[in-house]
Amino acid sequence: MQRLPITAILSLLTLLLVSSCTSFKATDFPGEEIDLDGDEISEDTVWTLDDEVYHVRRIGDTARFVISSVEWDEEAGTHALSSHHAVLSELGDTRFLSVKENDHYVILRLLVGNDDRTLMLANLDSEALEESIESGELKATQDEDGILFQGTKEELDAFLSAEAAPPFDYSVVGVLRLLSGEIQ
């Protein structure tokens, strides 16, 4: 299995946070942090998603990152810095990028593109999640900000690793490309 760069995942997750229709959030990230070798990824990398540029800083030798971008603030008439913490994790053979937004993680599936310099992020299928909520299979609430999981970390892992887990929506995939930095 191809190794998935953590920095790439974090950047892509932040991008998806901005562009996704319905996000799946939980108080914990799924699975376990990926054990990274300190030489696998540069401490600082720069990624692009569509027309946005993201600076990703690795926190020590962990699978945790700070993803930052500069955005135009119409009200203030100036640029504003936007930063999010993120975690790269895996549950079985599935890798996730979980981006911290307030008190919750937005959970995204992380996939490697055609090369190690391209990553893709996908959300869980929102229609399948809504059906799981209605049937009582998923302990979650839904509002205009997305779907919020209402269980423990163990229940989150069980839900996402179950054979009947909702599929991911690959019709709208964020594609992240590495501009600078190294990934091995």
List SSEs in N-to-C order: HEEEEEEEEEHEEHE
Uncertain spans: 1-20
Instruction: Tell me roughly what share of residues is in helical segments.
Output: 10-25%
Helix vs. strand class: alpha+beta
The total beta strand count reads 12
How many DSSP H or I helices?
3
> Separation of termini?
14 Å
- Radius of gyration, Cα only, in angstroms? 16 Å
Strand content: over 45%
Shape: globular
Mean pLDDT: 83
> What summary fits the major beta sheet?
8 strands, antiparallel, barrel
Strand arrangement, largest sheet?
Answer: 3-4-5-6-7-8-9-12
Write the layout of secondary structure elements.
Blueprint: H1 6-19, E1 24-26, E2 32-33, E3 44-49, E4 52-58, E5 64-73, E6 78-91, E7 94-101, E8 104-112, E9 118-124, H2 126-135, E10 140-143, E11 146-149, H3 153-161, E12 168-180
Describe this structure in words.
Strand 4 (52-58) and strand 5 form a beta hairpin. The protein is built from three helices and twelve strands; from the N terminus they run αβββββββββαββαβ. The chain is globular. It has 184 residues and is α+β, with helices and mostly antiparallel strands.
